[in-house]
Write a structure and sequence with these properties.
single chain; 484 residues; mainly beta; Tachylectin-2, Chain A; Jelly Rolls; six-stranded antiparallel β-sheet; five-stranded mixed β-sheet; 2 helices; 3% helix; 48% strand
């Protein structure tokens, strides 16, 4: 694996031609996705600026153009008419101001009338490499480009650590105010959220206080990528706690969790209805962000980074890594969060195939699981051995996903085997396979599991316990054009 110097990682892109050759090389990779957003070159990580504006979906992702390395971050911009077909639009935000000289870091967006506003963290470092995080904004201009404000909205607070980032902006109609929820860390290294408020989207921001979440005063060492919304009459708080291990998550110190409860904007208190739950039980799912302006009080739309900070993946050897998850719809049913693939994903189906053991590179499986234990192996070898395996134990209602038997193993010290606990017996599985990812949805959204998967040429079979299986190939819906 390449060892990157600081100068290499934080080199600014001066001309698109500097990376055209890299794009030409990586687009031939066997692991380039067909219906998932992925980096035009280099590394993609957190989804940013996700919103519906005047009939078009806007999404950006953290992007380091030079290779599969976390360094100087840009926002790369993609758009879609339907959350299925995505077009590369080029750089959304570049780290070209003093206040973001070492990166345009994560944030969100909101559509207000004819305007689409973006909020992000400007990562400034001085000559001694001391960080100052600024909360900054940009506006979508008439040409469809993100145009920065001349100055940040506000700077960091001295009574918290330098880890203050990832602004999530929301509008609260009852208070008639905008709020920014900012992921943060206290001076004694506890994760938290800072809250700012204003009557205007681009001015007048003032610190309102630290979000109180009873029972979570000492949960994790930093809360990245906070997201809050109200759906189905309940408030939903999603965040990514870092620097801590959690039960059932191996040696990982990066997680994505959610709480359902009640948000009191006057008291700045989110009161959970119960314990936290994992948003996704998989190996590779992080920094989930919900879209703004969905327009339906009963659902939210979410997308996440397929990957984890500090982890490493096989395509690093090809100088690229990462992709976005399949967008999913969130609803609250029976006091639980239900997650399903985005409505209309069936339109990507091109042909229904026989259940004959052959596994296409980009496909969907729908499995009706009979009562009792169940086994599934994806990416098995021709003799039926190996693969990414799922075992369901009916007595405990636990699915165990194991990727140790695949030829390409990675992040072995973090985790290779994880459990998915279910509240009801397993009766249905939907599985979405692309060239370097696999996403499981259990029981119409009761739970989800996302993982990177890198099958080799002889790992394109599957087998399973007796069950009714439907299998469709899926069309290419993401344009892998070189647009910078």
């Amino acid at each position: 694996m390449k060892e990157w110097t600081r100068e290499e990682r934080y080199r600014a892109l001066q001309n698109p031609e500097e990376i055209r050759g890299l794009h030409e090389r990586i687009k031939t990779s066997a692991y380039r996705q067909t219906y998932h957003v992925q980096p035009v070159t280099g590394l993609s990580s957190d989804p940013n600026g996700f919103a519906l504006h005047q009939g078009k979906w806007h999404l950006c992702y953290q992007w380091c153009p030079w290779g599969a390395v976390h360094g100087l971050k840009y926002w790369y911009h993609v758009t879609s008419p339907d959350l299925l077909h995505w077009t590369n639009e080029g750089i959304g935000l570049a780290p070209d101001r003093d206040y973001d000289n070492k990166g345009a870091h994560s944030g969100s967006a909101i559509s207000v009338g004819d305007a689409l506003y973006f909020y992000y963290t400007g990562n400034h470092r001085d000559e001694n490499w001391v960080r100052t995080p600024w909360t900054c904004a940009a506006v979508l201009n008439a040409e469809g480009r993100l145009e920065k404000l001349d100055a940040p909205l506000f700077g960091p607070r001295a009574d918290h650590s330098e880890h203050q980032r990832d602004p999530k902006v929301v509008w609260n109609a009852e208070q008639q105010r905008y709020y920014i929820f900012l992921g943060a860390q206290t001076l004694d290294k506890r994760g938290c959220v800072l809250v700012y408020e204003s009557a205007q989207p681009l001015s007048g921001w003032r610190f309102a206080g630290e979000l109180k979440v009873p029972g979570y005063e000492a949960f994790g060492g930093m809360w990245e990528c906070p997201y809050i919304t109200r759906i189905g009459g309940k408030d939903l708080l999603i965040f990514s706690p870092q620097y801590t291990t959690l039960p059932g998550r191996g040696n990982s110190t990066n997680h994505n969790v959610y709480l359902l409860g009640t948000m009191d904007y006057e008291a700045l208190t989110f009161t959970p209805d119960g314990p936290y739950r994992f948003l996704d039980y998989g190996f590779d799912f992080y920094a989930a962000q919900g879209a703004a302006n969905v327009g339906d009080p009963e659902k939210a739309i979410l997308i996440a980074w397929i990957g984890l900070p500090d982890n490493h993946y096989p395509t690093e050897a090809e100088d690229w890594e990462g992709s976005m998850s399949l967008p999913r719809e969130l609803r609250v049913v029976g006091g639980r969060l239900v997650q399903t693939p985005i409505q209309g994903v069936e339109r990507l189906r091109t042909a229904e195939l026989a259940d004959d053991g052959r596994l296409p590179a980009a496909c969907e499986l729908e499995i009706a699981v009979p009562a009792g234990d169940f086994d599934l192996a994806l990416f098995a070898r021709a003799d039926g051995t190996g693969g990414l395996t799922l075992h369901y134990d009916a007595a405990s209602r636990v699915c165990t996903v194991d990727r140790r038997a695949m030829a390409k193993r990675f992040n072995q010290a973090v985790f290779e085997v994880l459990d998915v606990p279910l509240e009801t017996p397993l009766r249905k599985l939907r599985v979405f396979i692309d060239r370097s990812s696999t996403e499981f949805f259990f029981n119409d959204g009761e739970a989800a599991f996302t993982t990177h998967s890198y099958p080799e040429a002889d790992e394109h079979r599957f087998n399973h316990s007796p069950a009714e299986v439907k299998l469709w190939t899926l069309e290419t819906s993401v344009r892998d054009d070189f647009v910078v």
